[in-house]
Amino acid sequence: MGHIDVWAQINTERMAAQPWGESLRRWTKKAGISATPSVGQTLSAMDAADVDITLLSAWYGPEGSLISNAEVAAQVAQAPTRLRGLASVDLTKPMQAVQEIRRWVDGKTFVGVRVVPWLWNLPPNDRLYYPIYATCAELGVPLCTQIGHTGPLMRSDVGHPIPYLEDVLLDFPELTVVGGHVGFPWVNEVASLTVKFPNFYVDTSAYAAHRLPRDFVEYMQTLGSGRVMFGTNWPMISPLACLNKIEQLGLSSDQQTAYLSGTAQAVFNL
């Protein structure tokens, strides 16, 4: 199998127009990538980097639907062997959120759920998330979230792994959690959660391989071996750019295979 990208999205116009995304738009323009790529452009970018499967995220925030679950389903339907979905929901409507997850997440088209704490300005141990966690645990699908500092112009504190995410892992030992965007500058906290919780994983989305923090690369070579997955945050960064200079990571053959596809294949049952 080729590579698996565990964090991407095909933006709608309303997603691309959000004011907090100005910092990401600077990156996108610099890279010459459309802020609202088509499915075809996404597949071409995947092909250029030997990416077989990409997980496309829905996005919901206080503003409402930015990329709806229905829109992601339509995107996946255009290339069902290459694309999968991650559902999202409105935290402020707990029963509707549970119903949405049960409606969309079938383990085939939608293989997990993503909620982004900085979008809500609520740490992941807030009570509003807990019906979502319970539903994911019941369905046996991963909960994907964001850890570390925030690229968009929003507060970073909610991405602090300890105590916020640790509380979730303690309360839901049955739940598989994937922390996206590396967790910088709290990499040591990320490493400690890996040791403590066998159901916690990390992805490297939003980072090109040669720009990963040195202490995170050391983590990938040691405690994080088999616990880290490849991601891009497309269209912010292309898969090819993310894989640039991957040999500099110094991973063994087995570690690199796990990083680029093996771990994601197991975690998302692909």
Descriptive account of the structure:
With about 270 residues, this protein is α/β, with parallel strands linked by helices. The protein has one domain: TIM Barrel. It contains 12 helices and 10 strands. The radius of gyration is 17 Å and the shape is globular. The mean pLDDT is about 95.
From the structure above, extract its key features.
single chain, about 270 residues, alpha/beta, TIM Barrel, eight-stranded parallel β-sheet, two-stranded antiparallel ribbon, 12 helices, about 40% helix, about 15% strand
Reported by name, the CATH topology is TIM Barrel
Task: Describe the main β-sheet briefly.
Answer: 8 strands, parallel
- Which stretches are low in confidence, meaning pLDDT under 50 for 5 or more residues running? none
- Provide mean pLDDT, rounded: 95
Quick one: how many beta strands?
A: 10
